[in-house]
Amino acid sequence: MTSNENRINALDCRSWERVLCVVAHPDDTEYGISAAVNAWTRAGVEVSYLLLTAGEAGMKRDPAEVGPLRAEEQRAACECVGVDDLVILDHPDGHLVEGLDLRRDIARRIRQFRPDAVVTLTFEFEAPHGLNQADHRAAGRAAIDAARDAGNRWVFRELAEEEGLEPWEPDVFLVGQVGDPTHVVAVDDEDVAASVASLECHREYLADLPDHPKPADFIPPMLAEAGALIGERNGVAFRVYELGGVAKSRD
Fold first, then answer.
1. What whole-number distance in Å separates Cα of residue 165 and Cα of residue 15?
2. Which of 197, 194, 187 is nearest to 228 (CA)?
3. Could you tell me which InterPro entries the record lists for this protein (predicted)?
């Protein structure tokens, strides 16, 4: 789906049944991507969130207290956009390592959930908002490798041989919060409101960031700007990559 052309297209998601969002921390999906998630779940798509850390290093409190708190806030955020399936792994926040263990954990979840699309955040050193955080970079790079690993029987053989998880490669890989999108998912006012509400669910986290703008002040303009790229009122921009795919059998 990527090309050398600068044209940005509307993303056709009508055939999708399942989408897996892979991010480093609680609240990562809530910075706009959750508007697309709400649109997908309203259309009957099953969406699962895979958080690689509990975000325990993200607040000015004891990490032992922060991890469970942020998980609770994330569950509330998921409810705002129709997500029932939330998996939080125990990789250390702030020390996320782009390596085989992380790739295996993501590939395992892909084989379990068998999504048509995997979504993550930009893994470039510089993001549109400034320097990208280390965990975000590691998460995104590991996710795109894992999306291909999951379809290869001979990578992480133990997933099939010991855990009974047959290979599965998603059709497409979406990267959000990029400066060079190729596609936009159109969303409506209800999706925008749900996205704002989902970030507002991270109350304790945002309270630790006194200079952070209110979700209602920056999310709607951001989504309106993306929507304008395809002539829509609102949208969520992504860079989209086609993956090789494997023969799929639906259960």
1. 24
2. 187
3. GlcNAc_PI_deacetylase-related, LmbE-like_dom_sf
| Three-state DSSP class for residue 99 | coil
pLDDT at 248: 45
> Is the backbone of residue 189 left (phi > 0), alpha (psi -120 to 50) or beta?
alpha
What average pLDDT does this structure show over 194-221?
94
DSSP state of 179: S
Beta bridge partners of 187: 234
CB 37 within 8 A of CB 29: yes
Fold designation for 15-242: Rossmann fold (3.40.50)
Rounded to an integer, what distance in angstroms lies between the CA atom of residue 208 and that of residue 112? Answer: 35
| Main-chain dihedrals φ then ψ at residue 189, nearest 5 degrees | -60, -35
Q: Shortest CA distance to 24 belongs to which of 109, 90, 72, 113?
A: 90
Local structure of 130: helix, strand or coil: strand
The 3-state DSSP class for residue 85 equals strand
N- to C-terminal Cα distance for the chain? 27
149, amino acid identity: D
Q: Which two tokens stand for residue 133?
A: 């955080």
In three-state secondary structure terms, 119 is strand
Does the model's pTM come out above 0.90?
Answer: yes
Mean pLDDT (the chain, rounded): 92
